[in-house]
């Protein structure tokens, strides 16, 4: 039985928090590749390339080599785009965690630690759309400490904080690849209220869908 403790972020946690977030997000690369390979336009491009090369070369070798090359280049490109996304997050709120989350009493950042070692993170700050909504962000649990209820406990910490500070709800976004996270939020009682494809060129090409969730916080009285 692993015993963990949830506490507020301290400046000394900076590197491990950023690393936990980046590692957690990097893990989605294989799922992202599978997601891309299911896109009809990509299947069509690959099938047409294969058939055209087969018809023109009358050999299986060239189309197989060409497809392998295309898939390898695609994998590299996807990896590059995904790492740019992770880097952008690290340059946003995670660049100065203290200033973003702890210098304002309507925000907070927590870590879970096991034997003085930080194994999970979560942040919360007012949503940019509605100030009465608290946005849950940067939930990440180290791989070897998953399935122990740590994420659930961190979520509950955020909900209690929202209640204490008088927020009406806790909101969050998930990407289409974050299946475990969605199951966890739904298990706690978060309701999906919006689901849309990211309105950018990359978003449409990758069919990158965002699900927005909300948890209505009961008032204290
Ligand atoms: C999603 C994540 C935070 C879950 O952390 P965790 O500590 O393992 O979650 P918990 O142990 O608290 O599990 C809570 C619930 O999550 C769901 N869940 C967790 N792992 C799951 C899995 N592999 N498959 C399906 N559901 C899963 C279950 O509903 C579980 O409830 P149960 O134990 O009653 O069945 C963790 O997998 C993670 O850090 N992933 C990478 C980063 C990420 O995706 N963050 C979310 C950003 S929105």
UniProtKB/TrEMBL annotation:
TM stretches of this protein: 39-55
Matches recorded under InterPro entries: Acyl_CoA_acyltransferase, GNAT_dom, NAT_camello-type
Record key words, sorted: Membrane, Transferase, Transmembrane, Transmembrane helix
GO MF annotation, one: N-acetyltransferase activity
Superkingdom: Eukaryota
Ranges where the N-acetyltransferase domain occurs: 68-208
PROSITE patterns found in the cross-reference section: GNAT
Official protein name in the record: N-acetyltransferase domain-containing protein
């Amino acid at each position: 039985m692993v015993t963990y403790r949830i506490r507020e972020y301290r400046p000394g946690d900076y590197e491990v928090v950023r690393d936990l977030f980046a590692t957690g997000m990097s893990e989605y690369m294989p799922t992202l590749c599978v997601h891309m390979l299911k896109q009809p336009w990509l299947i069509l491009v690959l099938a047409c390339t294969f058939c055209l090369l087969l018809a023109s070369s009358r050999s299986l070798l060239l189309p197989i080599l060409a497809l392998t090359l295309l898939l390898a280049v695609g994998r590299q490109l996807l990896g590059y785009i995904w790492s740019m996304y992770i880097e952008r997050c690290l340059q946003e709120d995670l660049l100065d965690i203290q200033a973003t989350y702890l210098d304002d009493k309507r925000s907070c950042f927590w870590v879970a630690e096991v034997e003085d070692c930080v194994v999970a993170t979560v942040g919360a700050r007012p949503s940019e759309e509605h100030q009465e909504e608290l946005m849950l962000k940067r939930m990440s649990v180290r791989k070897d400490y998953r399935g122990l209820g740590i994420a659930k406990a961190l979520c509950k910490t955020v909900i209690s904080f929202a209640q204490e500070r008088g927020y009406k709800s806790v909101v969050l976004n998930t990407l289409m690849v974050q299946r475990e996270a969605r199951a966890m939020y739904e298990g706690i009682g978060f309701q999906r209220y919006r689901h849309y494809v990211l309105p950018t060129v990359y978003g449409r090409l990758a069919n990158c869908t965002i699900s927005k969730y909300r948890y209505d916080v009961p008032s204290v009285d």
